[in-house]
Amino acid sequence: MRAGETTLAGLLDGKKQFQVPLFQRPYSWQEEQLKQLWIDILEQAELIAEGTDGSTHFLGSVVHAPSPQHTMAFPRALVVDGQQRLTTLSLALAALRDHVKADDPDWASDISRRFLVNSRTQGDDAVKLMPTQADRATYKAYITATPPIADESKVGVAYRFFLAKLAEVVESQDQPPIEKIEEAIISRLTLVEVSADERDNVYRIFQSLNNTGLDLTQADLLRNYLFMHLPTRGEAVYENLWTPLQKRLDPKQIEHLIWLQLVLDGENRVRRQDVYRAEQTRFAATDRSETVYEAYVHELVRRSMHYQTMANPTLERNTAVRDALATLRRWDADVTAPLIILLLDYRERGLATNEQVARALGYIESHLVRRMICRIPSAGLNRSFTDLPGQLTDGVLVDEDIHQLLSAERRAWPTDAELLDAILAKPFYHYGRANQRTFVLRRLEESYGHPEPIDFATAKLTIEHVLPQTPGPEWLAVLAEDARDGEDPLDLHARIKHTLGNLTLTAQNSKLSNQPFQRKQDLLAYSHLELNQRIAATERWGAAEIEQRGRDLAKAAIDLWPAPLPRAGRSERGKDWSLLHQALAALPPGAWTTYGDLAALIGSAAQPVGAHLAQSTGVTNAWRVLNSVGRVAENFRWTGEDRGDVLEVLRTEGVRIDEKTKKADPEQRLSADDLASLLDLGDDTGGCP
After folding, report:
1. What pLDDT digit, counting tens, does each position of 264-299 carry?
2. Nearest-5° angle of CA 133, CA 136, CA 141?
């Protein structure tokens, strides 16, 4: 066998075909693997955009052997290992091609010709990768730009995942240009290509490759490297420093700490999977004496005490700092680690007081929470917090410095006005992680300073919709009273049910359920939560009451989470349409939605959604948005290429249209909740931390 490093471009460019044999499993990547790959792609694209000479990302191996159909004129190979990676990357490129096709057909054609299809070939020979039989027809349809109707296969899910992520990139100022993403996929994700000889038994190779063992971690590699360079001091250093370190932190924490030490020492572009190589490079620039290596371990041990406090805030002696650390721990955001370790380090060295550290941690909390409530994507947060330690100014109080740095416009810390608008209009229940949503409600409850506060550690609280998610006749009657400007009560319900003003915490979710408000009042009146006492004191519960409670919660939120510093020339962020574009990009064939559903998803109203779609060109699947009864809007016009009768287009995509009424089948409609589920925007597991 022959082995060598390559890229996707090196593997796929030219006329060829990789065939997946029968003994391989069907395509099986889940969203977890897709998300991680997307993070790796974005990271490489950012490095390209910055002109940074960072390391490429090693994706794994691709092992292949000559196919029985192999000829010199048309090379064909059997994929022994790596078919999941190849399939996923090919689908990502197909999504990229379809994303750019409307604006740049030449670019789209180039992607197809180079990486997806073989020119001047027919049938199965047309595609460069031929999956196993179970996936063959579906995969080929996406690669040849003819997506199947009503497809829910894993292949289709992966394709639409990338299509939605590309739509998000276009709308975000924090993410790299699309052309850099293409470059990252084809040239920055490295693979080890192993070519087997035709005499090799490919089935036995496959079996041996899948007998996995435990790999050495980055921390293992670095430890071995360090003690190899401590020939006389190694035993003492291991016994007095490294052994206590291993007792204090687990292997993953040690690896994280090594990365944090690199970041705090100015190496803030190193990825966690590259820390061993990065430290090797740094040591190579020193005199390599045993003193240097021993000093490094001493510093690692010193900072491990701060790491241990960050991971377990009960070890912190100062009450204000302990409470602030515990609060951030409940939020569960690893991105803040570099700044937290730095603040504890500053305090140890006498550069910050307990009060300054606590205030700085409060600014960090506010920055994270306000962004989540305002639904600002987390893209860029990792880079932001790894950059911050190197941007602090000597001689400036650390809490004031952090407040100033986090207030920079590019860091998108929402203002009071933006926070109020988000609390009133945006569907809070469909964003962030479940623990973060309950975190917000818990912190708001704590801000009221109840004389007998509830023990959140033992209380089994979940998020309750006061206006139920499935309203009965009594609730619909109330909504009919509140509907304005011809808005349908169900559309009003969809728009307000997930806003923060309609949500609370309770341990009686099953009892409250879809009960009328008067019954919920009786149950909430006995609650120990101030949040619920205030709801129980309200006479009715409709749109006006939900809005007023939203205003009350917004006032509490503004008092609880400090605002960014005002900046000259700061501009309020305009309407963010990125989530709408992502939802449409992820809409599967054979499904449709409405202007009201999209409005409820993004926290807007049907009219501005319709106006946006009418004025925007190149929005994927915009023709699949119908009015509330399932008809094409009277003023619908194609904004890009005129594809003719929109009803006929919908029919060809699998939407069932009634011939008499011209209405789409309501069973194929995706509601706002369906769209949120499609984009994985939250769930119903809102348990309190």
Report:
1. 998 888 888 888 888 988 888 877 789 999 999 999
2. 165
Q: How far apart are CA 577 and CA 618, in angstroms?
A: 13
User: Are 331 and 439 spatial neighbours (Cβ–Cβ below 8 Å)?
Assistant: yes
CA 35 to each of CA 183, 339, 609, 677, 680: distance values in angstroms, whole numbers, following the listed order: 18, 25, 28, 15, 11
Question: What is the separation of C-alpha 130 from the centre of its chain, rounded to a whole number of angstroms?
Answer: 30
What count of residues does the chain have?
689
**Residue (of 345, 230, 235) closest to 288 by Cα position:** 230
* pTM for this predicted structure: 0.80
Q: Percentage of the chain surpassing pLDDT 90?
A: 55
Residue type, 352: A
Higher pLDDT, 124 or 362: 362
Concatenating the DSSP letter of every residue in 10-23 gives: HHHSSS-EEE--TT
Asked if residues 475 and 615 have their Cβ atoms less than 8 Å apart, the reply is no
Encode pLDDT of 327-349 as tens digits.
999 998 889 999 999 999 999 99
Per-residue DSSP letters for 587-621?
A: PPTT-BEEHHHHHHHHT--HHHHHHHHHH-SS-TT
Tokens 């001689």 appear where? 395
Query: What is the per-residue pLDDT across 126-158, written as a single tens digit (0 to 9) for each?
Result: 999 999 888 889 999 999 988 887 788 999 999
CB 424 within 8 A of CB 501: yes
- Residue 525, pLDDT > 80, answer yes
Distance of CA 46 to CAs 58, 336, 404, Å?
16, 20, 25
- The dihedral region occupied by 151, where left means phi > 0, alpha psi between -120 and 50, and beta the remainder, is beta
**SS3 state at 8:** helix
* Ramachandran category for residue 569: left, alpha or beta (phi over 0 → left; psi -120 to 50 → alpha): left
Identify whether the C-beta of residue 110 lies closer than 8 Å to the C-beta of residue 127: no
Judged against a pLDDT cut of 80, whether residue 405 lies above it is answered with yes
Tokens of 659: 């011939």
Neighbours of 300 (CB within 10 A): 21
* 181 or 268, which is more confident: 181
Half-sphere exposure of 463 (CA within 13 A, CB side): 30
Contact (Cβ atoms closer than 8 angstroms) between residue 139 and residue 147: no
- Which residues, other chains included, contact 195 with Cβ-Cβ below 8 Å and sequence gap of 6+? 1, 2, 3, 64, 65, 77
Tokens of 670: 């995706």
The amino acid that residue 458 corresponds to is T
- Does pLDDT of 500 surpass 90? yes
Helices (H), 285-379: 290-311, 319-331, 337-348, 354-373
Cα 428 from Cα 375, distance rounded (Å): 8
Distance CA 538, CA 545 (A): 8
Token pair 């809490």 in the structure block, residue = 399
More confident residue, 60 or 249: 249
- Would you say 223 and 275 are in contact if contact means Cβ atoms under 8 Å apart? no
Instruction: Give every strand in the sheet of 57-66, ordered side by side.
Output: 2-6, 189-195, 57-66, 76-81, 17-19, 129-130
* C-alpha dihedral sign at 34, 36, 42, 44: negative
Q: Which residue type does 121 have? A: T
Residue showing tokens 């009060």 = 355
